[in-house]
């Protein structure tokens, strides 16, 4: 991931005519080459934010800068550098995959040979070469998503914004789709913004996430940072040990330990200020017990999401 800021959002607000404040004073920035997950329940403001990033919707207040351009004032400059995959991808169903991509490529002003090269390379990367002359209406949902990524590749944008890209995919296709995104980041250096409520998958691919609740960005950072912010602890350690000594009092008094919970007869979950596995191992072995496992655990994005929303709704009521 580079250090250059490619997307910068400052105090962005959108109030629809009917009075709904769909996005309420949000600020964040994205770095070149990062994969960012915009997470939130239905109606929390994700799509409204995305539309403002794309210049398709005017903000009520605040500003957006995409690679130095204001998307609402200079939409063409932004459109050339940003690829967008909406939640319902609109391909021409009675045209072939190749024809659909050629239609997109013509807008880029490429000559016939450049178009052919770019399209065939993109379809190959998305493993759709064998289906390029088939009509899109014969494609499965997952194949249409892959064709959506191929279309992004034809466009070669610096930034790709994908609204609910994994919606409707089976678990295997989700894993495959997200690994394609990760590989595009590696090979093309693209920056991705994904909106989603598929937490586990997002955790596996995103460098940083932003949690949305009722138009507000209630948390922003890496999953580890969010874990610290909401759970007040840097690390969770899972320890398994057997022996005649009750380890609970011993573990509780170790330096750096914040709390200890017994999770099973011989299993403990330790909340600690930092990674103190070496001193825990010493203490356990010193007490005469057999240490069978000592693992660093992260709070799952799902745990963080649940807690963050509980906190946000407590604040709002
Ligand atoms: N054109 C509109 N006019 C008035 N209100 C709108 C309009 N579009 C969205 N809203 C409202 O703004 C809020 C945020 O909607 P938005 O679509 O941005 O949420 P979302 O997080 O993308 O939801 P989802 O996950 O369901 O797509 C909701 O209360 C929605 O009803």
TrEMBL record:
Domain ABC transporter: 7-239
One Pfam family cited in the UniProt record for this chain: ABC_tran
Metal-binding recorded as keyword: no
GO molecular function terms listed in the Swiss-Prot or TrEMBL record: ATP binding
SMART domains in UniProt: AAA
PROSITE patterns recorded: ABC_TRANSPORTER_1 (PS00211), ABC_TRANSPORTER_2 (PS50893)
Protein origin, superkingdom: Bacteria
Keyword terms, alphabetized: ATP-binding, Nucleotide-binding, Transport
InterPro entries assigned: AAA+_ATPase, ABC_transporter-like_ATP-bd, ABC_transporter-like_CS, P-loop_NTPase
Name listed for the protein in its UniProt record: ABC transporter ATP-binding protein
Organism of this sequence: Sphaerochaeta associata
């Amino acid at each position: 991931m580079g250090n250059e800021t490619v997307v910068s959002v400052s105090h962005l607000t959108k109030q629809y005519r009917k009075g709904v404040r769909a996005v309420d004073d949000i600020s964040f920035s994205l770095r070149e080459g990062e994969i960012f997950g915009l997470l939130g329940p239905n109606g929390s403001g994700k799509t409204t934010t995305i539309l403002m990033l794309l210049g398709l919707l005017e903000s009520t207040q605040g500003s957006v800068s995409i690679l130095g351009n204001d998307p609402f004032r200079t939409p063409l400059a932004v459109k050339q550098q940003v690829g967008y995959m909406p939640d319902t991808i609109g391909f021409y169903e009675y045209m072939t995959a190749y024809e659909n991509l050629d239609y997109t490529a013509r807008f880029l002003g490429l000559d016939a040979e450049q178009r052919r090269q770019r399209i065939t390379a993109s379809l190959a990367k998305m493993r759709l070469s064998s289906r390029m002359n088939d009509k899109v209406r014969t494609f499965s949902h997952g194949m249409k998503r892959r064709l959506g990524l191929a279309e992004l590749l034809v466009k070669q944008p610096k930034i790709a914004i994908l609204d609910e890209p994994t919606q409707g995919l089976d678990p295997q296709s989700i894993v495959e789709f997200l690994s394609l995104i990760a590989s595009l980041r590696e090979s093309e250096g693209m920056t991705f913004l994904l909106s989603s409520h598929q937490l586990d998958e997002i955790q596996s691919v995103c460098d940083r996430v932003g949690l949305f609740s009722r138009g507000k960005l209630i948390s922003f950072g890496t999953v580890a940072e969010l874990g610290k912010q909401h759970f007040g602890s840097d690390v969770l350690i899972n320890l398994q040990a057997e022996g005649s000594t009750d380890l609970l009092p011993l573990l509780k008094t170790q330096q750096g330990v914040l709390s200890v919970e017994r999770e099973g007869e011989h299993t403990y979950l330790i909340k600690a200020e930092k990674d103190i596995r070496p001193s825990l191992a010493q203490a356990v072995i010193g007490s005469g017990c057999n240490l069978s496992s000592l693992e660093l655990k992260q709070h799952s994005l799902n745990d963080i999401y649940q807690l963050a929303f509980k906190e946000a709704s407590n604040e709002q009521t």
